[in-house]
Amino acid sequence: MISFFTRRLLHSVLLLWGVLTLTFGALHIAPGDPFDLMISPETPPEYLEAMRELYGLDAPLHQQYWRWINGVVRGDLGLSLRLQRPVRDVLADALPYTLLLSSLSMLVHFLVGTVLGVVSAARRASKLDRTATIVSVAIYSLPVFWFALMMQLLFSYLLRWFPSGGVGDVPFGWDNLGPWFLSMARHLFLPVLVLGTAGAASVARFMRASVIDALHQDYVRTAYGKGLPERLVVWKHVFRNASIPLITLVGLSFPFLLSGSIVVETIFSWPGLGRVMVEAIQARDYPVILASTMLTGSLVVLGSLIADVSYALVDPRIRAR
Amino acid sequence: MSDSPLLRVSNLTVALHLEGGTSLPVRDVSFDVGASETVGLVGESGCGKSMTALSILRLIPKPPAEIVAGSVNLSDVDLLKLDSNGIRRVRGNRVAMIFQEPMTSLNPVYSCGEQIAEVLRLHSGLDRRRAWARAVEMLDRVQIPNAAERAREYPHQLSGGMRQRVMIAMAIACNPEVLIADEPTTALDVTIQREILALLDELQAQLGMGILHITHDLAVVSESAHRIVVMYAGQVVEEASVDQLFSAAAHPYSLGLLASRPELGARRSRLPVIEGRVPEPSQEVEGCRFRERCPFAVDRCTEEPPLLEVSNGHRARCWEFERVQREGEWPRVQ
Ligand SMILES: Nc1ncnc2c1ncn2[C@@H]1O[C@H](COP(=O)(O)OP(=O)(O)O)[C@@H](O)[C@H]1O
Ligand SMILES: [Mg+2]
Fold this sequence. Notes:
- The complex is a heterodimer.
- Chain A is mainly α.
- Chain A has a single domain, classed as MetI-like (MetI-like fold, Orthogonal Bundle).
- Helices cover 77% and strands 0% of the residues of chain A.
- Chain A has helices at residues 2-29, 45-54, 61-73, 87-122, 127-141, 144-158, 177-215, 218-225, 230-267, 273-283, 286-314, 316-319.
- In chain A, helix 4 crosses helix 7 and helix 4 runs antiparallel to helix 9.
- Chain A starts with a helix and ends with a helix.
- Chain B has helices at 49-56, 84-90, 112-124, 128-141, 147-151, 160-172, 190-207, 218-222, 242-248, 252-260, 321-327, and strands spanning 7-18, 21-33, 38-42, 65-74, 77-78, 95-98, 178-182, 210-215, 227-232, 235-241, 308-311, 314-316.
- By secondary structure, chain B is of the alpha/beta class.
- In chain B, helix 3 crosses helix 4.
- The A-B interface holds A 217-219, 221-229, 237, 240-241, 244, 314-317, 320 and B 57, 59, 88-93, 96-97, 99, 101, 104-111, 118-119, 122-123, 154, 156-157, 167, 170.
- Residues 49-50, 182-183 of chain B line the site of magnesium ion.
């Protein structure tokens, strides 16, 4: 178990390094640099040269790469070209918002998806199953951005129930916890709804198939033969087996959630990593792009690491290896 | 039939509703199992033995299968009339079942001990610790070495024979009155097969339970069964004590089974076989359902025979049973 873990950790670090190197390469292969966007035709070339020198963009590529890796290892992510602030601070401001949004969405995603999938499978061909199937296939096939815009249109422009975006202006404080929470909840509702249900639909489809498959296994007959009630047969014997493949889906859903949150954060002006990334890419803010890639990459890798470990916890056949 | 049988299956009929229409894989089946008695239920595969066995505990897959007639009396209670809570209290408690597939009949994600303890918590109301201790005891009882350690192991860590022992431990944990064993040794190799059969005999001697032992292989039950019920195409075609069946079988199908029976453990030579195959449940046959494969068939066989009394406790579904008994052997045709 321990060596399994360290091996996986080593893989993860190598994987991250690979992703970062590719991103670094891609950024620099693309023609132009950040200053192309900041200048006018009248900007003297000497000034440009000076700026490039200041930010180290005149050095040969391998030197830039080396300098950057060195910084990362020491925890120095550099300075945002656009915001003139340490990249670390920019990310530290955005990360909690993204974590809040994606963990809540993930909760909706798996809780709703799993329960719906299991119940659909256990009550196959019932009215509930058929309705759930139609709704989840419909949601699954909608593009996230379109779904997000429609929800925004419906709930904030037409019904005016929820704000169309942002995080609200109630500051956090121990004395106004209630108002802060309420404002937060109102602002989170639509982004979580969009991100959560989009994923819940696919989890429900997946879980339904997995449960139906498990229901046909011989051990289910054994469980009924023991005198267990259906509730226990389904939620204990079937669910545990059926959720093994679901764990892979949890791991794989991290990238989905993070890329989904880029769209959702942009549409709902949510000040998370996704928006930081989009703005950095528009401005070719190299240090921010690299660092946020590293951060999201780590989250994705962490996700699959967690999935692998939970795999081993749930399935004794893997644990033994 | 004994005076007060423990388990009495009467006129059990099971329908199978498939796309092509409804058929009857089990037709008017009746038999008894007494305390401390082993009844062998024998027939080729596809004869409806598993359907019969599963119907006793109402475990048949529904849909497509459905019990349409008959009763299953355990002492004085008709199991087919119980509500869902009532039948659950019988399953695994008063009547327990083991299956052919020891590889897949245990849940791969729970330890063997947990799977036995579960049934004890359910029916005997033991708490976790006592149920576990008792589960270990049960493993010991079915002669699994190092029971305490084995209890913590998972099914994939055990051999087929060991898994079947775990299944048996689970089945006898609540001291059932009847054990239904559906081809319990078919998937095992010969030495293990013998060990499991001996174990079942021993447990029966200790616990006094009735055993319904289902098999397609007469040799398997020839030593342990007291009585044999032969099934063909959903019907009981002969019922007799082991001695009666082996010395004076009265149905041609039983003769065929006796002739096809290899020594327990011998390589399956395909020598004396009954030509043809069991008709599908959906296939309607006029008269005797065995007629088309039967070397003894006469004109009268187009009329369906009832179960005829051959001698005391010996019945056969054949008009010609006297001739069958006289000849006493499956004709060896080329
Ligand atoms: N779930 C099912 N769906 C369709 N047909 C079935 C099903 N289970 C059993 N049958 C049919 O019912 C008949 C009896 O099967 P079974 O009781 O399993 O026979 P046995 O145990 O004697 O080999 C067979 O013809 C089989 O094809
Ligand atoms: Mg069978």
